[in-house]
Design a protein that fits this description.
The complex is a heterodimer. Chain A is an all-alpha fold. Chain A is built from 13 helices and two strands. Chain A has a two-stranded antiparallel ribbon with strand order 1-2. In chain A, strand 1 and strand 2 form a beta hairpin. The longest helix of chain A is centred in the middle third of the chain and has 33 residues. Chain B folds into two domains: 188 residues, no CATH class; 77 residues, no CATH class. In chain B, helix 6 packs across helix 7. The longest helix of chain B is centred in the middle third of the chain and has 38 residues. At the A-B interface, helix 1, helix 2, strand 1, helix 4 and helix 7 of A face helix 1, helix 2, helix 3, helix 4 and helix 5 of B.
């Protein structure tokens, strides 16, 4: 589920980095304000724990397949949302740096998808509401499972949106979403079960840990900012998903116009400024007619992109020149590299 | 060797690469970090169908690996491991975008294949750049660079702590899993019922360990303020490094050098 740099555009990467940086600064402020000095070593060690735990593949009985833990929900339950967000951010940073699991430009997206949704949406709005101040086994199971499933669904949807908006992959929205969401539903169920198992174990053996965690982060201290960002996302989600059910009949204005004048949409005057603006709008619209660009549009778009870049026309001579030049560039680089190597060895 | 043991080895390998002394290792971590960020942004900003224009960008990882005396094998190994996930998404491009783009003799290549190759090149560039950053800077250097770039101290301290205890916990987990598989029938996987208590025990030991660490820190004079040593100053070579590479990246982005070179050699069409 970690996004790679190869499939992301700088705008999407940059925007998500801004969102993540803002959330991280906010969380760091909250954690620093808490007078519990014990928390930082605990955050570090729990981060290492989640990292290690993610490496275990456990067998799912009856399916012959295996899965592994995500971990943000366990962190949120034990540390509270702010510390958990920072911890999962550090886990993802190490994974991106040392294991090439997710790109550095895409790290902002990954931290947002895997950290914001479980810690700031699923944990306070689902887990805490269900489990409350006095957990029972049933409530823990329900809360952890539901929170994990929904957190992962939102995260997977985030990946879909970020990939589509980057425009490098040609996958259309519906196909990609239908691919990602069911897979992450299964993963979410497994994560919910594992989270429940671990938290129930802790609750049985050392209930004071859970009580302390539950008391130290009451819902009131969450603040308005994360909830606002969450609401923004829910709006996007609603707009995206529920629009599938939107009626394709003309809306009220169009209907009345049609009745009055006999044409459905108002034809624009032929003045230049309208053509320019219409062209501009057509190019920047992500959702022409409230729909993602159809696969035919991809081909049309591809032609437009190519028409703008390979000018005058697709010239195979020019492309071959490019390829030859590329090979020459590589040879040149190799030559420079080898000579540098020899120079270093001689010194 | 299990997956965990290979992860542990990978971490150690990159760690050991980072303590070498070479020209690149001596450059200030901030300069290296910012140069990598600019590199990644420029690579991502190329258009979807750009192939030949990307080739000069390979100078950056190539030169750094040579000047930094980094071994090719482990880095390529890590790159190849990460490849399938990207290609799984990228492979849809040739299936969806079938408009012919290029004709070499009788062969018609569609735009989808061009964009797939572009994705592959971007992937190579991005992953090698990130690994080279770590291999020449190390986690301590990156932590220092992040602090100097005004990243919240809480996060940097947490990152460094976590990295330190990663080794400890990985070793403990390896021992636990090995003990389990030695006692299980035919080395089968961990069933979900066992899973909860296994992880749970590890978690409780982890929390207790954190308490002991906190106590040890208090005994050694911890007063709540985390101090990190080694604030390096930026010197001339660092600025030259950063500006030099940044200008190179921007030039490569604006001018398709291979195209020009190839046209020069073939005699221009």
């Amino acid at each position: 589920m970690h996004m790679a740099d190869a499939l992301i555009s700088p705008m999407v990467g940059g925007a998500m980095w801004l969102a993540t940086a803002g959330l991280a600064a906010y969380s760091a402020q909250k954690v620093a304000k808490e007078l519990d000095e014990n928390k930082v070593p605990l955050m570090g060690v729990l981060g290492a724990f989640i990292f290690s735990a993610q490496m275990i593949n456990f067998a799912i009985p009856g399916t012959g397949s295996s899965g592994h833990l995500g971990g943000a929900m366990i962190l949120a339950i034990l540390l509270g949302p702010h510390a958990a967000f920072l911890t999962i951010a550090s886990v993802l940073t190490i994974q991106a740096l040392f294991f090439a699991d997710g790109g550095l430009l895409a790290l902002g997206c990954n931290i947002f998808n895997l950290g914001f949704f479980p810690c700031f949406i699923a944990y306070p709005l689902i887990y805490k509401q269900i489990v409350g101040a006095r957990p029972t086994q049933k409530r823990l199971f329900l809360g952890a499972s539901l929170a994990s499933i929904i957190g992962l669904q939102l995260g997977a949807f985030g990946v879909v949106l970020e990939t589509i908006f980057s425009g490098i992959s040609d996958l259309p929205f519906t196909t990609f979403a239908l691919l990602m969401q069911p897979i992450h539903l299964a993963i979410g169920i497994v994560e919910g079960l594992v989270t429940t198992a671990v938290i129930c174990f802790v609750w049985r053996e050392r209930p004071e840990i859970l009580q302390k965690a539950a008391m130290s982060a009451p819902l009131g201290t969450l603040g308005i900012k994360p909830v606002l960002v969450g609401l923004l996302f829910v709006t996007v989600l609603t707009g995206g998903a529920l629009s599938w059910f939107a009626s394709s009949n003309p809306d009220g204005l169009e209907w009345s116009l049609a009745k009055a004048t006999g044409v459905e949409e108002r034809q624009e005057p032929e003045a230049d400024i309208y053509r320019i603006l219409a062209g501009f709008q057509k190019n920047i619209t992500f959702f022409p007619d409230y729909n993602f660009k159809e696969p035919e549009d991809i081909a049309v778009n591809a032609q437009q992109v190519r028409a703008q870049e390979v000018w005058p026309a697709v010239n195979s001579g020019k492309t071959i020149a490019g390829l030859v030049g590329a090979i020459m560039t590589l040879l040149l680089a190799g030559l420079i590299g080898k000579s540098l190597q020899l120079a270093i060895k001689r010194n | 060797m299990s997956k965990m043991e290979s992860y542990w080895l990978d971490l150690r390998q990159l760690d050991e690469m980072a303590i070498h002394k070479s020209v690149i290792h001596h450059i200030h971590p901030c300069a290296k970090l910012l140069t990598t960020v600019i590199f990644l942004t420029v690579v991502a900003s190329f258009s979807k169908y750009e192939v030949s224009g990307l080739f000069p960008m390979f100078f950056y990882p190539m030169l750094l690996m040579i000047l930094g005396e980094l071994p090719l094998g482990p880095i390529m190994h890590r790159v190849l491991l990460a490849l399938p996930f990207v290609m799984f998404i990228g492979i849809f491009n040739p299936l969806l975008d079938q408009i012919p783009f290029l004709q070499i003799g009788p062969l018609l290549i569609s735009g989808g294949w061009i964009s797939l190759f572009s994705i592959f090149l971007r992937f190579l560039l991005a992953v090698t750049a990130a690994l080279i950053l770590v291999a020449t800077t190390g986690i301590d250097g990156i932590g220092m660079a992040l602090l100097q770039l005004k990243v919240p101290r809480v996060f940097v301290v947490q990152l460094l702590f976590m990295y330190r205890y990663l080794y400890v916990l990985l070793e403990e987990l390896i021992r636990t899993i090995r003990a389990h598989s030695l006692r299980s029938f035919q080395g089968e996987g961990i069933k979900i019922g066992v899973w909860g208590s296994l992880l749970g025990q590890l978690l409780l030991r982890t929390i207790d360990r954190a308490q002991r660490i906190y106590g040890a820190m208090l005994c050694r004079g911890f007063d709540g303020e985390i101090r990190l040593i080694g604030r390096k100053k930026l010197v001339g070579i660092d600025i030259v490094y950063f500006l030099g590479w940044s200008i190179f990246f921007i030039v490569v982005r604006l001018v398709n050098i291979p195209q020009w070179l190839g046209t020069l050699l073939i005699g221009g069409y």
